[in-house]
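HUMAN: Quick job: go over this next protein and say how the chain folds.
***
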Amino acid sequence: MVEYLAGNRIIGTDSERTGMTVVDTITKDTQAIIQHGTAGYGSPDTFSSFTVGNNSNRALIVATGAYNAAPSIVSVKFNGTESFASIQDYSNGNFRVELWILLNPTVTTADIVIEWGTQSGFGGAGAGQMGAIAYSFYGVKQSSATGTPVTKNGSASATPFIPITPTETGSMIVDSWFSGSDASVPNNDFADGMNVICGGVDRSMASQYNLTPTIGSVNNMSRTAGNSSFAQTAVEVKASSAYPNIVDGSIFYAKDTNKEYVLNSNTWTEV
């Protein structure tokens, strides 16, 4: 049986040490996309039959983008009653981007419903051009799961980006982006992402994520895009831990092998 002592010292067998890490590995389970070009605000959008797998420390993340300073989203729900929490709601006066999260969603296949806000007299060219992307991840911390979001009101650029510095070992980063350009391909530095052309017009919404960003350093979430202004927001999503009593720098004494190890960057090294 493992013993936790003062000064981040641990005593146990070598087999107990194996696999004991600071954090879990965040992994993507599912992703999906919806878009429209002319629908009015106030109407719901639905990710139909979205599947959440039977994995530990689950989280759903929804990224949205809309044209013409759309009103804020009212709610995002999964499986009828499970409500997302807003991470960030940012508008630059022309475009609005939002990020939402739901921790510990039910393991099932059900709809994710976005309820867009309404605004009296709202309209104009491009009103109703929106996109949304949903992700299912696991290995995510189940309280205080996100860092401080960052935002950017970007000027016209062929290679737009937003800088973000994740702070905790095992964290991932994810963004939401909306632009007046119809070309917004996620940068190859990132594991994955999705892009949608809103209603076949020269505007697009996109999202990308990086499961293994450089911790403690600036990561530029960039994309190849047309030369247009944009709004963007990004956030750090933190990893869960099956061993909350250990940290980088912990010392493990394996009593069966009489060896000592130190934990650094989630890896045990013999000392």
